[in-house]
Design a protein that fits this description.
Length: 240
């Protein structure tokens, strides 16, 4: 690796370290509006400083929605996507210290009657998540409202990452243990998932995740999406 490559990694790791350790300690005490304002400023830096990501985002969006949106509208959505992503990442910084009051101020929930009707059958319920927006916020939003919720995910992918990524993962894992959510792994806790449904609990599964097999191809926004069959199989086995 050349000098510029090492310099880029050093700068990237330094930024990650600053946000996940010194800044995270401060972010917990900031008003939410101020945290979002900082995130918006950072999003401008990322938007104008990452020409490759900006162009790729525009290209993909145009392929999906180019016939429905004008070029000006496409670029507006691209800009907005950077802002939303940065705000979501700032939410990650404070998620481990969330309280019931804070979550209720941040998150509005609609359709809880659907969960209640499903749980009334006594066989648990499976909540399908997708990796759009602040998808992780679903878990504490329901957990702090009194629902017993479990999140099933894949094993951590750290072997190709740098030491800073491992430190961040360990910090997140430690803090998230304080949330009213139980985390399970798809490679080791399959039986535990079935038992959770038998106890009439909620199980959240990202149907567009990287784990799974026998993927089903579907058309989505002019592209081919791969959807896992795991949630449907759990429902068939347990009656959830």
């Amino acid at each position: 690796m050349g000098v510029f490559g090492r310099l880029k990694i050093f700068i990237t790791d330094s930024v990650l370290w600053f946000f996940w350790f010194p800044f995270r300690g401060v972010a917990r005490f900031l008003p939410l509006k101020l945290l979002y304002f900082i995130a918006e400023l950072c999003s401008y830096c990322l938007y104008y400083g990452s020409a490759k990501i900006r162009a790729l985002t525009y290209s993909e969006l145009k392929n999906c929605l180019g016939e429905r949106l004008s070029e000006q509208e496409l670029w507006r959505v691209v800009r907005r996507s950077f802002e939303m992503d940065m705000k979501r990442r700032c939410e990650d910084l404070i998620l481990g210290r969330m309280t019931k009051d804070a979550v209720e101020k941040m998150v509005a929930v609609e359709g809880l009657e659907n969960i209640d009707n499903a749980l009334a059958k006594g066989k648990g319920a499976i909540i399908l998540l997708s990796h759009f927006g602040s998808y992780f916020m679903v878990l504490p939003a329901l957990g702090f409202r009194g629902y017993r919720i479990n999140q099933i995910g894949g094993s951590p992918v750290l072997k190709h990452h740098r030491p800073i990524h491992k430190r961040i993962f360990e910090a997140r894992e430690k803090e998230y243990s304080s949330l009213p959510v139980k985390f399970m792994r798809s490679d080791t806790d399959v039986k535990a998932v079935v038992r959770a449904l038998q106890r009439n609990e909620l199980v959240a599964i990202a149907f567009d995740g990287r784990e799974g097999k026998d993927w089903v191809k579907i058309k989505f926004l002019g592209r081919t999406a791969y959807v896992g069959q795991g949630p449907v199989r759990f429902a068939a086995i347990t009656g959830a």
